[in-house]
Design a protein that fits this description.
Distance between the termini of chain A: 41 Å
Order of helices and strands of chain A: EEEEEEEEEEE
Shape of chain A: globular
Number of strands of chain B: 11
Largest sheet of chain A: 6 strands, mixed
Helix content of chain B: under 10%
Radius of gyration of chain B: 13 Å
Oligomer: heterodimer
Strand content of chain B: over 45%
Number of helices of chain A: 0
Number of helices of chain B: 0
Distance between the termini of chain B: 36 Å
Number of strands of chain A: 11
Order of helices and strands of chain B: EEEEEEEEEEE
């Protein structure tokens, strides 16, 4: 069964204190790994797609990396506005569908 | 602006009532999805549609129904058979199988509360 595990479940950082969020997965034939950001009461906002081990993508203070078993979301010098829940999801071929399997999310709080 | 709209933002339902949640997209996407989000749980797929007039059950379809009569629209009905419907409902869309880009883009969500 496909599984996605995010850790830690919650993380508190001081402004400027860099850290990493982990997303480990078990899936046969990974088609893509996705990172989203979700603010309270809102829909998830797409951040990154990673397709193969060794791939990296960056956006402002965020950098996502992928290995064969896990992905990391590195946050460099975070600001309070980076506070949100970060979701990880994986996709594998399944009869031509594009179903995603989501982790439970990781709530990040950045204190000023 | 292209995007996904969901309405209403908040919905209250009495026991035994069916309610319909609206989802519209103007991104020219082929595929559309409905997810349910509960506290402490990941998003769970209810139904998805890869093309007009076709849809498939997701992981938790019991008590829900959908239709896909137009490319832009994918309404979700929460029936009285759904025993625990209170949740945050999210609609998403993607380009579908005709594209190598698999990202799903989400609407703002509808929060359903059963009174």
């Amino acid at each position: 069964e496909d599984q996605v595990t995010q850790s830690p479940e919650a993380l508190r950082l001081q402004e400027g204190e860099s850290s990493s969020l982990n997303c480990s997965y078990t899936v046969s034939g990974l088609r893509g790994l996705f990172w989203y950001r979700q603010d309270p009461g809102k829909g998830p906002e797409f951040l990154f797609t990673l397709y193969s081990a060794g791939e990296e993508k960056e956006k402002e203070r965020l950098k996502a990396t992928l290995t064969k078993k896990e992905s990391f979301l590195h946050i460099t010098a975070p600001k309070p506005e980076d506070s949100a829940t970060y979701l990880c999801a994986v996709q594998r071929p399944q009869g031509g569908s594009e179903k995603l399997v989501f982790g439970k999310g990781m709530k990040l709080t950045v204190n000023p | 602006d292209g995007g996904i709209t969901q309405s209403p933002k908040y919905l209250f339902r009495k026991e035994g009532q069916n309610v319909t949640l609206s989802c519209e997209q103007n991104l020219n996407h082929d595929a559309m999805y409905w997810y349910r989000q509960d506290p402490g749980q990941g998003l769970r797929l209810i139904y998805y549609s890869q093309i007009v007039n076709d849809f498939q059950k997701g992981d938790i379809a019991e008590g829900y129904s959908v239709s896909r009569e137009k490319k832009e629209s994918f309404p979700l009905t929460v029936t009285s058979a759904q025993k625990n419907p209170t949740a945050f409902y999210l609609c998403a869309s993607s380009m579908g199988q005709r594209s190598s880009y698999n990202e799903q883009f989400f609407g703002p969500g509808t929060r359903l509360t059963v009174l």
